[in-house]
Write a structure and sequence with these properties.
Elements lengths: L4 H19 L9 H8 L3 H13 L3 E3 L6 E3 L1 H8 L4 H4 L2 H13 L2 E8 L2 E8 L6 H4 L7 E3 L4 H7 L4 H14 L8 H14 L1 E5 L7 E6 L9 E7 L7 H18 L10
Antiparallel strand pairs: 1-2, 3-4, 3-8, 4-5, 6-7, 7-8
Helix pairs in contact: 2-3, 6-11
Protein name: Helix-turn-helix domain-containing protein
Keywords: Transcription, Transcription regulation
InterPro entries: GAF-like_dom_sf (IPR029016), HTH_MetabolicPath_Reg (IPR050707), Tscrpt_reg_IclR_N (IPR005471), WH-like_DNA-bd_sf (IPR036388), WH_DNA-bd_sf (IPR036390)
Length: 264
Amino acid sequence: MPVGSAPSNKAKIARRVIEVLEFFDDTHREATVMDIVRRYDRPQSSTSELLSSLVELGLLYKDPNSRSYSLAPRAALIGAAGQTGIVRDGRLVGLVDRLAAQTGLSVAVFGRVGLKSQIVSWHAGPRASSKAMRGLHGGLQEPLCDSAPGWLLLSTIAPTRRDGVLRRLNAEAAEDRKFAVPDMTARIETCRESGHVRGKLGFGSQADVVAALLPGQDESHPLAIGIVYGEEDRVSRESLLRCLDDAIEGLASLSKVEKLPTAA
């Protein structure tokens, strides 16, 4: 085997592991081999082998009767140990669940990966428009300048560095995606001043989003959370923004811990 092909094969395996883990969500608590095969257009034999390996590693459970797979707690906890704040102690998951329950709409967490924005986590709401939400799931990426969540994430970059980032994004953008740098800068400054954004969700969808930056994040790795809706949902953006602000404000009180007298 050529030496240069090894990293590529390893990258493909890593991608497939992440695909399997991201398949599971509130609407997909269990999965069969064929569910994974159909979703990602993967070979059946290698998919079956991969799922069996994840069971051996303690990341998945396998039901011997239905031959279906489900996530094991280790899959959730293995990454949380290296995190801090609202990610480590579960407050972020609680926040997502709360917003979805309050609004009935879908909720997404967004992060920055290089020059792209990413849907870090996706929670489909019970009354969310299927038309607007079609094709949306965790892991999707697109250039930061292409949608509202990206503008919000760009607002966390220092202005002196941001100008260079915008020029590079514009240079690499397709012709129909190019923008006037001064206009984009003004849009991002508005996001920076308010800490919020309202606009198109992007990621190939027709949905809109109301989003806010999450507090206490490393400036080089910002996170934002947004409530996603379609035109037919007939929502009040102002009400969604208040709901978002109230929920984020409540994160601080949830972090307080009363120590026992014997605690160090």
